[in-house]
User: Fold this.
Amino acid sequence: MAEVSLHKVVKRYEGVEAVRGIDLTIGDKEFVVLVGPSGCGKSTTLRMIAGLEEITDGAIQIDGTVVNDVPPKDRDIAMVFQNYALYPHMTVSENMSFGLRLKRFPKDEIRRRVDEAARILNIEDLLERKPRQLSGGQRQRVAMGRAIVRNPKVFLFDEPLSNLDAKLRVQMRTEIKRVHQQVPVTTVYVTHDQVEAMTLADRVVVMNDGVIEQVGAPNELYHSPRTRFVAGFIGSPSMNFLRCKLDREGEDLMVRLADGVALTLPAESRERYREHVGRELVLGLRPEHLTETRPPRNGEVVAPFPAVPDVVEPMGMDTLVYFRVGREEVCARMDPSANPRVGEPITLAANLARMHLLDPGSGLVLGTRPTG
Amino acid sequence: MSAQTGSAAQASRAQPVRYGSMSRSRRWALRWSYFFLVLFAAFFLLPPFYMLITSLKTSAEISAATNPWWVFSPTLENYIELLTTDQYLVFFRNSALVSLIVVTLTMVISVPAAFALSRMKFWGSATLATGVFLTYLVPETLLFIPLFKIFAEVRNLTGIELINNWWVLLILYPTLTVPFCTWIMIGYFASIPKELDEAALIDGATWMQTLTKIFIPVALPGLIAATIFAFTVSWAQFLYPLAFTTSTDQLVLPVGIVTTLIKGDVFNWGQIMTGALLGAAPPLVIYAFLMDYYIAGLTAGATKG
Ligand SMILES: Nc1ncnc2c1ncn2[C@@H]1O[C@H](COP(=O)(O)OP(=O)(O)OP(=O)(O)O)[C@@H](O)[C@H]1O
Ligand SMILES: [Mg+2]
Assistant:
């Protein structure tokens, strides 16, 4: 049982506010991922939870107690670092048992826990090796093992996979998820990779510039982002943003794009956007919702969207097509069989049931509740 | 230009595979390296060789006009005489005692100091670290007169006589060794990634445990380098013992040899050389044992940054 909660947490270095008032509650056994661009304050937040950085303002609670002034060792947390931070002069098993030995656990209990963790992580054969005799992925496992044997209330991970090559990263990602299912412990995981965030998290916390932009389940963030930042950050390739004007034509609402393309909104979204008629807005549409023309599947409301491809990138499963609308570049995701060619005009289908309209000034997505 | 490339092309056509040129230039580089290595080895080994030759001669043979680089009637007389006189053994004992205690003191002070300066960010720690290094830059030739003054003041105030006691060197030598060893160790500790002590901190280690269980083992090569340095400095220090100790029973080796074996203008060369040679032995033995670590330490410090 361990809930972690942050109340208006602020971290100020001389001159810089790295974290600017964060409120977040992480439930027991929940896997929460902090994600955001470099320098947005993810590590700082994590390190404050760990007790490695002092909290300038606000409060952090672990399991109901305020831990602002509790040293790291008494917070009952374990942390996995990006560079693994294994003790180079100790064997794998000594590395894993270091914390327990300091706490003077009985020998057989230490033995039992190390063996158990080694079994979970598949590193039973490596126990007597030194860290320099291990590969990157193996070191990563040992670092996790060191966290597991402690049996802590909270696991903290700071970009644990970014030193691994792409293939191993995917493999270890699955491994981490599997370990969390076997050993369900409250986990805070920091990454700048949105795919890692989406695949691992129960809930994703998107941070930007020291504040939380949005908290939500991966699918929620994908389907209903609240701000332009989240909309652009989650999903790959990222969402297209096009300047547009919202107009009324009889009962219909339509968005007019820079080069005269007009898209009629589906009937369901009329209510949501009616009050914005006549305004200059930004249309947000993901590449996967801008496809070749095909019979609409259920729930799709498609509008024709003319395009002349500039660049065509075959990806195997689908083909990315880049073209321009006015001065803005747009990406569409087509079926390879559509076989688009550079310079040849095509008509794409925009799935307007999935589009968003954003306020160009505040960057808020219209029709969603404001961040809070 | 074109003629050159043309001939080169021809040559390569005649001999399609010409790895030889690469290994030929390598061979030349090796030859030059060996040439200079031998030159330097000779340069540095000649004095000890001369000492050895001279130490095996009788006084008569030394003063005779024979080939100075050869012994015609070798004798162990000088060795026997030195090792059976109490005086020389007292010098040796003083030197050993001073060096061992100074090395211990130095390590006990400079390792924790370096740890604190490199890891515990406290107010003024950076300035202090620079200050430590600056202290090392002040030469002892500048310091011994003020120190003499201070010692005289101490005697006036407390009545404790510091001058002409071998143990006063235990206060003096660390002023030379502690700053430098602290500086070396700061460098080594700084090369240890900070996540390592953070991991230890989270694992529940106190600062002291982090130092003894993580930092010291990880920085062991550096520690050995620092130990060797401290030992060499204390063993070979000349100026301070010359200035601060005078009675023969308080002298350390380097000063003892010069002051007792030179009587007026009579230089007892045979014994001087023997004494110096025997005196150089302990650092040699220590180097031989710790050489691997020492070199590992030097290079680790160079590449880790
Ligand atoms: N010790 C420090 N002193 C001053 N500023 C700092 C310090 N540590 C971090 N910062 C600043 O705080 C901000 C947040 O840093 P943080 O390390 O939390 O970013 P991050 O989100 O983890 O980024 P990354 O993905 O690059 O690791 C950055 O602007 C950084 O420059
Ligand atoms: Mg970071």
In short: Residues A 42-43, 159 surround magnesium ion (ligand 2) (CB under 6 Å). The first strand of chain B starts at residue 262 and ends at 263. DSSP finds 14 helices and two strands in chain B. Chain B touches chain A at residues 193, 195-196, 198-205, 209, 213-214, 217-218 (CB under 8 Å).
